[in-house]
Specification:
It contains 19 helices and 4 strands. It has about 350 residues and is mostly helical. It folds into 2 domains: about 150 residues, no CATH class; about 130 residues, no CATH class. Helix 3 packs across helix 4 and helix 11 crosses helix 17. It is globular and about 65 Å long.
Length: about 350
């Protein structure tokens, strides 16, 4: 703070003090007002929420209601579940050839297996309870309606509720969004406590919460949906911006969801990322890091785990900080280009404009 000002000849000049003080105050006001300027928001009209979305498919209900005759059951299963039913049998559960009527009988064995029956019962009272499913469906429907508003020509998937046998929390295809409800029983549920620690480490079990169904499912589908043709794996910066664009769109589809849930983090994780954003950027910005083509090395920025295992990033950090940094870059870029369509955003492959727009918090 200025306490006195002297002219070149050493004579005190109060008028000059007043002029300079006024200029300094004006400069401060510009900084403060600029920093407090209202951020652009991408509003969705009410009419968008009148657009019908595909009716969710409950595979568990379909399996429970199959007729006793194997051939009739097989026909009913194919009619009700379509291509996803085949993927469920052959890829998710891997219990048989979907083209064979005998495979349907394996569904009954699966549902009644001593290890699976308690999981089915747990789903019925937690993530798959009628009131819970209604909430999940309401949130996912609104998110898909927002997505449809932003991408009018893009397909919208049919949500499929399932018990994957702890094989897939999310199984996204272009047309379907399969959600393994057993992955969202609640981190303190007794069944979650019985999961093998070497297959389901503590950080993974901590994330098995019902409120994470919608952001986890939609994030998984968006990552797959945009992968062709926009996913690049050549350099760290390419993956950084792909994740950033997807996370930005996820944020716009779920504007009322706390940001930490978008990343599958805790609120404390998000606070850490915000408080250490500049430090993380200093770790990421060197040319040999940001433009690294060593997939094994730069993949650590995007790997799921208890923390981000890269360089000097401490164990107190959340995982996938590369996704967070990409999101922040795209946020800043879109604030500077609010009229840019989301289709055009996804089509950007030149990193320079987005990276240059970024201002670490």
């Amino acid at each position: 703070m200025l306490t006195f000002i002297c002219s070149r000849n050493g004579i005190f000049q109060p008028n000059r003090i007043l002029r300079l003080a006024t200029l300094n105050w004006a400069f401060v006001c510009l900084i403060v007002l600029g920093g407090c300027r209202e951020k652009h928001e991408w509003h969705v009209p009410h009419s968008a929420f009148d657009v019908p979305m595909p009716e969710p498919l409950d595979l568990r209900k379909s399996m429970r209601n199959l007729p006793p005759d194997s051939l009739a059951a097989w026909q009913a299963w194919k009619e009700q579940t379509g291509p996803f039913g085949a993927a469920y049998a052959e890829d998710i559960l891997r219990i048989g050839d979907a083209s064979l009527p005998s495979t349907v009988a394996e569904f009954q064995r699966f549902m009644n297996h001593p290890d699976v029956a308690p999981i089915e019962a747990a789903i019925d009272t937690t993530s798959g309870a009628p009131e819970s499913l209604a909430q999940h469906e309401e949130r996912l429907t609104a998110a898909m309606q927002r997505f449809h508003h932003f991408f009018l020509e893009a397909p919208v998937p049919q949500v499929v509720w399932m018990n994957s046998g702890f094989n897939y929390a999310v199984y996204p295809t272009e047309s379907y969004l399969g959600v393994g409800l057993e992955w969202f029983l609640g981190s303190d549920h007794p069944i979650v406590g019985t999961l093998a620690p070497h297959l389901f480490p503590q950080y993974m079990r901590n994330r098995m919460q019902p409120e994470r169904v919608t952001p986890t499912a939609l994030r998984g589908w968006l990552l797959v949906h945009f992968s062709d043709p926009w996913y690049r794996t050549d350099r760290c910066v390419d993956e950084l911006l792909y994740w950033g664009k997807v996370m930005f769109i996820l944020e716009q589809c779920l504007p009322d969801t706390p940001p930490h849930l978008l990343f599958d983090w805790t609120a404390e994780d998000m606070l850490w990322a915000k408080e250490h954003e500049r430090d993380v950027w200093l770790e990421l910005q060197p040319q040999d890091v940001l433009f690294s083509s060593d997939r094994t090395e730069f993949g650590r920025w995007f790997a799921e785990g208890p923390f981000t295992r890269y360089g000097g990033i401490p164990q107190e950090s959340p995982d996938r900080l590369g996704a967070y940094m990409g999101w922040r870059m795209v946020q800043d870029f879109m604030q500077q280009h609010p009229d840019l369509s989301f289709d055009d955003l996804m089509a950007i492959t030149d990193y320079q404009g987005i990276v240059k727009a970024y201002r670490p918090e």
